[in-house]
Amino acid sequence: MKHETIEKLKKLPVTHSAMAHAFSYAISSGLLAIILLSLWIMGIPFQNKLPIIILPVIALDFLLINKWHKIAKKETAPEK
Q: What angle do the packed helices 50-76 and 16-42 form, to 10 degrees?
């Protein structure tokens, strides 16, 4: 990337919503990778069980987004 583009990206405001999405996606994708890697290492066939594995991870992802959204709203709410 050009240096100017990187500087423009650094100046963009990062909202709490974006951070909540980024953290939850990172955690859920890391969890999914750990589960699949451990099943592969143990030699357990998991190809036909992928929906059973992926759906709870997606649900966890949405729960984390919702939780961090609420926390971010509390932190950024104006004090009364």
A: 150
